[in-house]
Specification:
The structure is a single chain. The protein has about 150 residues and is an all-beta fold. It has a single domain, classed as Jelly Rolls. It is about 0% helix and about 50% strand. The protein is built from no helices and 11 strands. Strands 1, 3, 4, 6, 9 and 11 form a 6-stranded antiparallel β-sheet that branches. It has a 5-stranded antiparallel β-sheet with strand order 2-5-10-7-8, with no helix packed on it. The two termini are about 15 Å apart. The model has no long low-confidence stretch (mean pLDDT about 85). InterPro entries: ConA-like_dom_sf, MAM_dom, MAM_domain-containing. This is EGFL6 protein. It comes from Machaerirhynchus nigripectus.
């Protein structure tokens, strides 16, 4: 398993330069490190911010599970999507509203076939809301299929 968390992870994270705004580090409530967030007041409605995880050492023809914590806090805060590099057109995961301010867990299976996915993109789309934030944390990549809950 590879720890891609922002505070102590070994992974290669890049801000997209063709988007509308950057993700920013935000301090965790417990004080142990930080997560990446997009506050609701950044940018205009439908603006996009993309944070890319570069996967350089994945073995072709094997499966991986990407597990991450996410939070959509605030009314009409926007959408969080995840894209794999080899499937640019459609997101492999999307969430558009938080039921509450709690952190939840997302899981995505990455199947490496003839073309390997060399990056995962977390995309935040700005909503109409003025309060809250979209956050991502504790990104971990494990080999094999995603475990059941």
């Amino acid at each position: 398993s590879v720890d891609c968390s922002f505070s102590r992870g070994v992974c290669d994270w890049k801000q997209d330069t063709d988007d509308d705004f950057d993700w920013n580090p935000a301090d965790r409530d417990r004080g142990d490190g930080y997560y990446m967030a997009v506050p609701a007041f950044v940018g205009h409605k439908n603006d996009m911010g993309r944070l890319k995880l570069l996967l350089t050492d994945l073995k072709p023809k094997s499966s991986y599970c990407l597990i991450f914590s996410y939070r959509l806090a605030g009314e009409k805060v926007g959408k969080l999507r995840v894209f794999l590099a080899n499937k640019k057109t459609a997101p492999v995961w999307e969430e558009n509203k938080g039921k509450d301010e709690k952190w939840r867990t997302g899981k995505i299976e990455i199947f490496q076939g003839a073309e390997t996915s060399n990056s995962v993109t977390f995309e935040s789309e700005r909503g109409k809301g003025k309060t809250g934030e979209i956050g991502v944390d504790n990104v971990i990549l494990i080999s094999g299929l995603c475990p059941e809950d």
